[in-house]
Amino acid sequence: MKITVACGGTSxxxxxxxxxxxxxxxxxxxxGHDVIxxxxxxxxxxxxxxxxxxxxxxxxxxxxxxxxxxxxxxxxASHGIPFTGSGAEAxxxxxxxxxxxxxxxxxxxxxxxxxxxxKGSVFDxxxxxxxxxxGHLIIKPNSGGSTVGLTQVxxxxxxxxxxxxxxxxxxxxxxxxxxQYIPGKEATCPVWERADGSVVALPVIEIKPKEGFYDxxxxxxxxxxxxxCPAEFDAELTAKIQTAALLAHKSLGARxxxxxxxxxxxxxxxxxxxxxxxxxxxxxxxxxxxxxxYGVNFPEFLDEIVRVSFGIKRKYx
Length: 317
Prior knowledge:
By secondary structure, the protein is an alpha+beta fold. The protein has twelve helices and 13 strands.
């Protein structure tokens, strides 16, 4: 097939997206596809110039903002252009963490206690009670990813700084999410819908920063974090995480693939943090690591994503 790999975008995750786009384009070309890598700056740019690409569809390798919140997906679907991954609604639910938390909980997936605060709101009694109750909180943008704008909070002063950072991390961000800090281990689990119709939870990955917590620096600095895949959890805990990942995927209406991040406590409690509808896709990213542990190499994995995605009839088409 002839495939346009859309990457870049305008979010703070632009560099990550460009890396994903390069890796996806190379792997699809290796598999035998005719690939065009497109650094796009708006959904309109891609749609209006679609005839110039003359491609069979789009591999979405964009992260953050309109590339991942359903805007691009709605534009592509309304013009009948096939694309990889989830549709507009699932992308929107996955991007906005307050919505995702609600759907997770409704499907039986455990989430941390928390709430969203609108941009410009002041520290109030609810915030004070939350800080007093837990002593250690997490504040992060309600949308976006890559831990951009995430802060650990242990005081009122930290809380106020964390709010400002979260609100100002993304151009269109108008909410910050406040959550209890969950002590324990960091884990993630991708879900993959295969060409035979099966939906499988791929091997769980444990994420082990060598220092501090899993922030942007530790996530994207080579050697700062160890990734154990498959994670060395016992069979019962592994199954618990995989079941939660499948429930999270289905609760959002996700299609083809997703990756849900978790905190795992010492006593085996599993808390869903967020779901990624367009996770990183370099050959060393977490979803390809899990696919490799499952027995599928990177080019083959991407090829099946394309074939399954392009075969889905989308809403608005």
